[in-house]
């Protein structure tokens, strides 16, 4: 019996799979066992065609392919190549496949293709140090070349794959890894990447200086922000520009976003740019939260931005389901036969009007809503949900005399400087995602600032969570001012962004 190593996705993580083959006497047949999906069952015809068109005889024996361990459901078309190699090389007893993982979908003529599952699988195995050498096609090799500490061998078709195992010098099949051609920082021996290209620029936003300041703080510390203002005041414009000025990304974050893109059936771009997800308020709860079998918007926004426009129009069940991801930076979905945990370290942006008609804060238009309608509209957002928002900003109505001020480049430079301070301080998370223990370690107050925070806590009835939010925002403000310690003025500005 010969064995080739491969793997399958279980939820969003990979499980190793041994592809085993036996050839016994009996009526010729070809069977795949081990809980294969329909995609894998169909591989029998692809493998047969690929072998026969390349002048390989199909063995006139009873062929049994087993995907072990058998209790795990196997999915994906990337098992084609391992199965074809086991059949084509079954007579050559000198060839062993012990130290290499093999992935690839076969076309009918033997050409090897990429599939969406290959990159997430290999990345998952590499993070657990379960993979050293991998054999894939050229297109797959280009994607996984960004993953460190693995040797990638690439072939174009089944004939080349067979020749690879007969070759004495396998280095000729080694894929040369590509280097990231982006701006980067080196802090404490670790590299962080960013772009100097701003597709959407803050220079387009006229006025709204307070909102721009809040956006700068949100980007520098990865703080959740809620924007309230009349229609057309620039809430959506600000939300679309914020991802471009966020903190630089580590290689792990870039690869994690690429993995989510692949699982979302999109081509990974490997750009050091935070992903932005903006679902419509008519989206279902399943599409936002996800399930044990499919990713929702919450999981796809990890390491990026999740933007909810017209926030009060989202169903209450969806808004309340955000409380756990916003607080714990993770989401556990439990079903009868499965449990899956998604990371949710995203920056949440909410945008809303001040009332149903939107004219409550307008100087030129009269509000058509009565007090009861306004109260009902605002009560769609519960206090526990609002308690998880770091920055609350009321945006003024636009004025013809408003002028542009800061561009995205200048704001991004400030974010990068604040980011350096956080990393050099020993943080492995940005200020907005610090847990309670880390808050006590990194958010140190002098006596004057501590007295001010205690007074504010009593006067505004701040919860323990709200007090920590104030501290984390103050820490980011201090970083933007290049201050080692949190001062009184930083606490005052942070308190100014609390919803009262």
TrEMBL record:
Coiled coil: none annotated. This is Fis family transcriptional regulator. The keyword ATP-binding applies. InterPro entries: CHLI-like, MCM_dom, Mg_chelat-rel, Mg_chelat-rel_C, Mg_chelatse_chII-like_cat_dom, P-loop_NTPase, Ribosomal_Su5_D2-typ_SF, Ribsml_uS5_D2-typ_fold_subgr. Keywords: ATP-binding, Nucleotide-binding. Residues 407-498 form the Mg chelatase-related protein C-terminal domain. Residues 201-400 form the Magnesium chelatase ChlI-like catalytic domain. GO terms for molecular function: ATP binding; DNA binding. PANTHER family: COMPETENCE PROTEIN COMM, MAGNESIUM-CHELATASE SUBUNIT CHLI. It comes from Halarcobacter bivalviorum. The lineage of its organism: Bacteria, Pseudomonadati, Campylobacterota, Epsilonproteobacteria, Campylobacterales. Pfam families: ChlI (PF13541), Mg_chelatase (PF01078), Mg_chelatase_C (PF13335).
